[in-house]
Amino acid sequence: SDVSNINFLDNNTGWAFADSTIGPLFRKGIILKTTNQGTSWTPQNMGTDSIKILSSHIFSSTSVIAVGKFQTTGNGASIMTTNGGTTWVRDTTSFPERLFDVDFSSPNVGWVVGRNGYIGMTNNGATSWNTLTTGTGEDLFSIAFVDANNGWAVGADPGTGGTILHTTDGGVSWTSQTTTSSGDLFSIYAFSSTSAIAVGAGGIVITTTDGGTTWVTQTSGTGLDLADVDFIDANNGRAVGLTGTIIRTIDGGVNWISEVSNTVNNISSIDMRSSVLGWYVGRQGDIYKFDFGVGVDELDNSAISVSVYPNPFSDKVTFKLNRGTNSFIVDVFNVVGEKIKTLNAINTNKVVFENKNLVKGIYFYSVYTNNERLDSGKIIIE
User: Taking all residues of the chain, what is their mean pLDDT, rounded to a whole number?
Assistant: First the structure.
């Protein structure tokens, strides 16, 4: 089976959507749920419909919506659960086109995008959908809103660069925007009403900081298609794509570095919860987890706090417990998640990490005591 979408509510609970062959032409959709970071997955019943899910949105631990296409007709399909996935109910709305993405700015207000320039909007939590006028007939693959008014949709290249649509009135009207990059745009992430990033075919990465008046092409370091992009804040994000491609940025998409994905299969979806915890999925049932020392159980940081200083540093950095236990462990990782050092602090409240010919840049740490995580973050060698 191919896993097309993954989405997590928090550090532990998430859903993955896949398909499996049920005949020479059609595939039956599969829904998987985890409550332990993906250590184990429980199948959920989609029902009798043969639906390929391509995107999802999680409202809460009980409420999730997922969209895609009927395998038999190719028309758009939407299913929803309000009990954590015990049962999924198909939306009776007849979407005229297959749906590629869904986004909500609140539990009631949301949008879907699909083939031939289709955008649908709901004001009542997906009870009903209205078709919006977009002014394009190109396939729209991704949509992202920062609030009830401001959002972007991106899609196929009509020959003058990937399609970019922008709205400031919740989708009532859409304005076409231009970019010098050619090729389809497959995913967009919006930081604010003025700032967004999109990725696509041939390793395209474009960014805007002025609401899309201008889009700047960035150097991604790959010529392979990028299918999805996700950020945890304005600076830290990852994009994924063909043949196991993963690239990472720590400056909002201006610069990118390649990461090892441990797969040569296409990656279709990524969800990051922090700079050191996330998941990506793709062909052949692949579900991979980033876990640079982040455990399910965490101690209450109000009981024990960690100081890291100086940071940035050149020669050495100190990890100090300000109160609580006086024995702890610090693991240090490089940007691709390889552990490069374990520091053991025995009967002391601090330990020093020395820079021994490490290259300048970002590194990550996790602090533990009694096999439970106290803190994690990044250190910078300059």
Answer: 88
Q: Tell me if 166 sits within 8 A of 175, measured CB to CB.
A: yes
Per the DSSP assignment, residues forming a β-bridge with 379 are 363
Q: Name residue, tokens 């250590």.
A: 39
CA distance 232 to 212: 21
Residue 340: Cβ within 10 Å count: 12
Q: What percent of the chain has pLDDT over 90?
A: 59
The number of CA neighbours under 13 Å toward the Cβ of 203 is 16
Going 222 to 224 to 225 to 228, the CA torsion angle's sign is: negative
Better-predicted residue by pLDDT, 363 or 102: 102
Q: How many CB atoms are located within 10 Å of the residue 96 CB?
A: 13
List Cα–Cα distances, 325 to 29, 80, 200, 353, in angstroms: 49, 46, 48, 19
d(CA 322, CA 304): 7
pLDDT of 158 over the 50 cut: yes
Token reading at 374: 């106290």
Rg of the chain over Cα atoms, rounded to whole angstroms, equals 22
Model pTM?
Answer: 0.77
Residue 23, pLDDT > 60, answer: no
Q: 3-state DSSP call for residue 310?
A: coil
Dist CA 229 CA 171 (whole Å): 22
Which among 168, 159, 169, 166 is positioned nearest to 143, based on CA atoms?
Answer: 166
Task: Write out pLDDT tens, residues 7-17.
Answer: 999 999 999 99
Mean pLDDT within 87-92: 90
Give the number of other Cβ atoms within 10 Å of residue 309's Cβ. 11
| Residue carrying structure tokens 């690239």 | 247
Helices (H), 194-302: none
Say how far apart CA 183 and CA 79 lie, in whole Å: 31
Length of the chain: 382
